[in-house]
Specification:
The protein is mainly alpha-helical. The chain is built from 7 helices and 2 strands.
C-alpha cells in the first residue's frame, strides 16, 4: 500500500480560474498560466518545507513541444528531487475516449474544459508531453479501470522508490 495525496492540476489552477468566470469553452486570457504557475510553486514550496516525507501525486495534462508543459514538469520534478521522491508520467487515452471524458458535464464543476472540438484539435496537434525522465511510466488508460490504473501506478512508484533507495 502507498498512501498519497492527489494534487489535481485544477486544485492548483482553480483559485485563479475562479476569478475569471470561466465557462469551460471560452479561450482563457493570455498570460493566465503564469499566475497558476506561481500558485503551483507555492504549493510545492510548502510540500518540500512541511511535508517532505509525505507522498503526493500531481496531475498535469502537458503537451509535447509546449514550453509551459516543460516548466510545469520542471517545477514538480524539482520538488520531487528535493524530497527524494519518484516522478513519473502516465499517458491518458485515445482521442475518442478523451472526447467522451471531456464532454462529461461534471468537469464543469471543477472548472475543467468541456470543449470537445478543442480537445480533439489539441490531441491531433501535439502528443502527450514526455519529460524524458528515467522514472517515466507510459500507461494507456483508454480502457483501463481506475482500480487497474491505480495498481499500475502503485507498482511503478514502489519500483522507483526501491531503485532510489538501492
Amino acid at each position: 500500500m502507498v498512501s498519497a495525496k492527489i494534487v489535481d492540476n485544477h486544485w492548483v489552477n482553480n483559485p485563479i480560474l475562479r476569478l475569471l468566470g470561466e465557462d469551460g469553452t471560452a479561450p482563457l486570457p493570455k498570460g493566465i498560466w503564469e499566475f497558476t504557475g506561481r500558485v503551483r510553486q507555492t504549493v510545492l514550496d510548502a510540500i518540500t518545507a512541511y511535508a517532505p516525507s509525505a507522498n503526493f501525486i500531481f496531475t498535469h495534462a502537458g503537451l509535447e513541444g509546449d514550453e509551459r508543459s516543460l516548466r510545469t514538469f520542471q517545477q514538480i520534478a524539482g520538488a520531487a528531487e528535493g524530497c527524494d521522491a519518484a516522478c513519473c508520467r502516465c499517458d491518458c487515452c485515445d482521442e475518442e475516449e478523451l472526447a467522451r471524458r471531456v464532454s462529461n458535464p461534471e468537469r464543469r464543476q471543477r472548472l475543467k474544459s468541456t470543449d470537445v472540438p478543442a480537445s480533439r484539435d489539441r490531441s491531433r496537434r501535439a502528443g502527450v508531453f514526455d519529460p524524458l525522465h528515467p522514472n517515466t511510466l507510459v500507461l494507456d488508460v483508454t480502457s483501463a479501470s481506475p482500480g487497474k490504473t491505480a495498481i499500475a501506478i502503485r507498482e511503478h512508484i514502489l519500483k522507483v522508490l526501491g531503485d532510489l533507495s538501492a
